[in-house]
Amino acid sequence: MRDQDTLHCGGAPPVLLASTSVSRRQLLAAAGINFEAVAPDVDEVAAKRELATANGRTLAVALADRKALAVSATRPGAVVVGGDQTLCCGDRLFDKPDGVDAARAQLCALRGRVHELQSAVSVARDGVVAWRHIASARLAMRPFSDDFLERYVTLSGDTLTTSVGAYRLEGPGAQLFERVDGDYFTILGLPLLPLLDWLRQTGVLRQ
Amino acid sequence: MRDQDTLHCGGAPPVLLASTSVSRRQLLAAAGINFEAVAPDVDEVAAKRELATANGRTLAVALADRKALAVSATRPGAVVVGGDQTLCCGDRLFDKPDGVDAARAQLCALRGRVHELQSAVSVARDGVVAWRHIASARLAMRPFSDDFLERYVTLSGDTLTTSVGAYRLEGPGAQLFERVDGDYFTILGLPLLPLLDWLRQTGVLRQ
To answer: Percent helix, strand, coil in chain A (nearest 5)?
Structure first.
């Protein structure tokens, strides 16, 4: 698409999304951002081991930074957006479940409790983090029955493993919750409004 | 779909959505509700004339009630969900714009100001309102340039006329805002979590 047909400034640098998250891609695309998604060469498992003592907030920021920096190193001049989300319930940090059984166990652990999501976004340019933002949301999962859980897991299938919470609030996952406090974009994994603001301040998007 | 493959209780009454709103249909469908959408036989223009002195809250509740009751009258036994949303900025109530020029004028009036959305949902059964809920959200529109506005209007086209705010926060409309306080479902026109809770309490959805 030509710049004059979009909400981008003419001659603005290309925007890259250093993430394979479907939610983040959909959010950015829906918001009218032209970007290319690039899988960052970051070993998340190794990074999490290295950052094992970090809290959810620190971990999300560190991973968002690393993703943005990894892609920025290969694409000089580009505006590279990295994002990460962590989920904390009590003292426990949760990871994306690696299968349906892990997702079921995770939903059981979150049932009837409040958990916190931390969503970090970092922007790197020419190998330097130029901006970052972190936002949080609190979600209260209702004490659903085992019968409900089995049906929910069957209905959702592999989509359960695509997010750190093993739910999709934008889908049947809404039936898991009794209360949600926080920005929807933050819940989906990308604090969108602050990012859009930064992209305007730096001449990527039109004012 | 058979009840045993869904999150509905076996033998639960049918759910009808008394609304032609695309957002409401998408929200309910995404949340895993099986329903039939029925256009309510309500003259909204006449109703708004009759309720001319009402504030945004009262008007939204009255219209949600009327939509639910209108469909309920024709479908005994069904659980009929009606919804309405009003937008208030200062002392002025806004209506869905009837064309692109009206949408542009409305966006100009909201630019650089905070406005309030009131989203009402009513459930009628056998000609009686059995439950209702109203929720509000506050949105701060940024002082975008005329150039941005023209491009946004061109990009959005007729989708501008589908909502009371002449924007879609779930689309490029996100670029219009500097701050959004309130539940995303409420902003899209349906306080979903309280409705799901009611549907569980009354045996329509599984606990």
So the answer is: 40, 25, 35
